[in-house]
Structures are given as structure tokens and as C-alpha cells.
Amino acid sequence: AQSVTQPDIHITVSEGASLELRCNYSYGATPYLFWYVQSPGQGLQLLLKYFSGDTLVQGIKGFEAEFKRSQSSFNLRKPSVHWSDAAEYFCAVLTGTASKLTFGTGTRLQVTL
Amino acid sequence: GAGVSQSPRYKVAKRGQDVALRCDPISGHVSLFWYQQALGQGPEFLTYFQNEAQLDKSGLPSDRFFAERPEGSVSTLKIQRTQQEDSAVYLCASSLPPDRASDTGELFFGEGSRLTVL
């Protein structure tokens, strides 16, 4: 079955430092992969998505992610973190048809000033 | 409205009570999803509608959970005889028709309804 693993439950970085959040997927075919962000009390917001083509995808808020088939990974990166980036980040894979998503357990990002 | 609207935002129920959670999707979005997000977990799929048709309900945890979307717009998730394990945030999401390949998978989420069962 398709699944997504986010090995880091909680990450703390200093403002201005770089960030990488890990995501590994298990999927037989070419996966459709997503990163969502959830701020406290808010719904999930799409940061970026990968369907095909260029393996480095750009998203909103300065985020990017790189699809690496050989490593079954889709890690999220940001060169310089801002305090407002503190939130919960979810990686997800499209499973089946019609936009059904399977989410990872999330990584909570804390940003120190 | 501009986004997915859910109500109530917060609901406290006594064990055994029935609850109903409402979702008003983005206008024109034919696909509607319900997810359950337990504390500290990622969202888990419950059910999916395309217009008024419930095409997938494989994620509903028990027959106490029931969802409907009678006119293909607003949806209601009903939980009968609530149990403490039902405590979670219930997220609704909508998306454009699935044949819009460029938009496949882009779900627009509401802020959720937080259910606490005492």
C-alpha cells in the first residue's frame, strides 16, 4: 500500500538558518507528491506538488522540494527560515484516483529567534 | 465564499450523543473529501464525494459515521453515539473535477471542526 514516512517529529531551527524536512514514500508507480503546511488553528495549505518533469519543484513562501526516485524521497527545503514558518508540515502522496491523499504524520517546526 | 467553510469550529459532546459537522466547499468544486486528524497525527481519509455521489467511504471507521451531500454542494458528516476515540479535528476539503489534470491533487482545506467527546 502507498505510504509516506516523515522521520522527524519535531525540528527546531534558528531564524535565518536553512531547513530540510524529510519525506520518504512507498509507491509502486511514479508518485504524485505534495507538501502541505498547517499553522495552529488553520487548515492545511498547499506548499508545492510534484507530478512529473523537473525533479526540483518550487513552491510558495520560498520553499522547494526535490524528488529523488533512487532514494524514494521528496524532501522539503528552505534556504533561510523565518519565524512565521513555525508550523506543522505534512508530506502526502496521491493514492488511487480522484485526489485521495495519504498523509505522513507530520513534522512540527519550531523557529527560535 | 472564497474558501472552504466548516461549522461548528468547536464541538463538545457527551459520550453517546450524536453530532453533525457541516462543510461548505468552494463554489464550483465537485469533489469533496472528509479527513479525520487525531492529535499529533496526519489527516486520515474518511470519505469522498463527486457531486452528490459518495464514491469512496472506505475510511469511515465504523457504521456510526455517516456522510451525505444531497445536492452536490454542502456536505454533512454525522457521528452517532459518539465515543471518546472520536475526538479529533474533522477536516473538509474540496477540489476541482478530477479530470483537470493540472489541478489533480490540489485540495483546498477548511479550518476544521474540533470534536471533543467527554
Helix and strand topology:
The complex is a heterodimer of chains A (113) and B (118).
Chain A: E1 3-5, E2 10-14, E3 19-21, E4 24-26, E5 33-38, E6 44-50, E7 56-58, E8 64-68, E9 73-78, E10 87-94, E11 101-103, E12 107-112
Parallel strand pairs in A: 2-12
Antiparallel strand pairs in A: 1-4, 3-9, 5-6, 5-10, 7-8, 8-9, 10-11, 10-12
Chain B: E1 5-7, E2 10-13, E3 19-24, E4 31-37, E5 44-50, E6 53-56, E7 65-68, E8 75-79, E9 88-95, E10 108-109, E11 113-117
Parallel strand pairs in B: 2-11
Antiparallel strand pairs in B: 1-3, 3-8, 4-5, 4-9, 5-6, 7-8, 9-10, 9-11
Characterization of this structure:
The complex is a heterodimer of chains A (113) and B (118). Chain A has 113 residues and is mainly β. Chain A is 0% helix and 51% strand. Chain A starts with a strand and ends with a strand. Chain B has strands at 5-7, 10-13, 19-24, 31-37, 44-50, 53-56, 65-68, 75-79, 88-95, 108-109, 113-117. The mean pLDDT of chain B is 91. In chain B, a hairpin with a 6-residue loop joins strand 7 (65-68) and strand 8. The N and C termini of chain B lie far apart (33 Å). Chain B has 118 residues and is mostly beta strands. In chain B, the strands form two sheets. In chain B, strands 2, 4, 5, 6, 9, 10 and 11 form a seven-stranded mixed sheet that branches. Chain B has a four-stranded antiparallel sheet with strand order 1-3-8-7, with no helix packed on it. At the A-B interface, strand 6, strand 10 and strand 11 of A face strand 5 and strand 9 of B.
